[in-house]
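Ticket #4471: structure output looks truncated?

Reporter: J.K.
Steps to reproduce: submitted the chain below (374 residues) through the standard prediction queue, then opened the result file.
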Amino acid sequence: MGDMDFTNFGDLAEGVLWGGLTGEVHRGFMHRCLSLAERGWGRVSPNPMVGAVLVRDGVVLAEGWHDVFGGAHAERMLFEGLEAKNFSDCILYVSLEPCAHYGKTPPCANLILEKGVGRVVVGVLDPNPLVSGKGVGLLRAAGVEVLVGVLEDECRQLNWAFWVNQVIGRTAVIAKWAETADGYIGLVKEDESLLSSGNQIVSQEVPLTQTERVLISGEASGRWVHHLRAGVDAILVGVNTWNLDQPKLDVRGYGDVDQPIRIVLDRTGRGEYTEEAVRRSSGELWVVGGDLDLVELLKWLYSEKGLGVILVEGGAEVLASFWEADCVDEVHVLRNPEMVLGSGVKSPRMENMVLRRLDDLGGDAHWVWERDLG
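Returned output as attached by the reporter:
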């Protein structure tokens, strides 16, 4: 690979020292980078979340992370305030390959060279084929020792949406729904249902009208959904969901945050966009109508509007349309294991997804599925 040659962490035998430290120690510092990077959740999109740690003789000298879109990158934040001018005896850990191009900020690879850092440990290379390897190549050409691939999968996973942006060239899509133990996400309007309160199923039968919703998930899931919303650029629903559920599509319980953009797919212009409806959230409201090619829409949202990731919350037809267009990249399923409807609207059928995580949210099971980006 010429000037881009670097040491691959996967090629090092366990116990072998690199930079005087073992693989276990390198993984520990990279875990810290990932923890720092997560501080940019919901603040840096469409940029990636990145964390950095500077170490001398096994002791942390400084830390940094990309805190807000358009602001300093992790490496630049790290060096701010450090009085020393030469760090040739230090190791810099960074979760994503340092950039080597001018954007909103100067190249981080150049900054690392200016500071005289002797060794750099990189979690994963940049996914952009036009950029990948150039930051590492610049460092190696200047004589810096570089180790690549420490916690590579975890570093890639943290920024899966950025991988979609760069590799596929469109806005990344998260689908989310709550489902019953028998796999239903709601009722058709002629059904009668057992509505739930939290995770406690109400015993009496209640006729379902057009404006009533079946509460499937519990309070803990509800709180978690607002955490998910806080990390996306926009929330998308279909016009039926907009009219019937009258959703706020906002973030609550997270203080003063920038509310996500609300996007309504309204092919025929039958949405109810009253002043009251518009004011349900302070987030911008975008209505998209006409014949829709979802792939082209997502490419436009990324290239022209700078949206890194959106959350699709329904309804069933909209979720199905994103599946048919092969545009779903991550899925969150909140399943109530005690609630059974027996009939209604079945949950979407997932294909080409990898189960990444299964945990509990109160009484609900939380399944996380993702597109395999390799």
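Triage note (M.O.): checked the attachment and the full token line is present. The first helix runs from residue 23 to 37.
Status: closed, working as intended.
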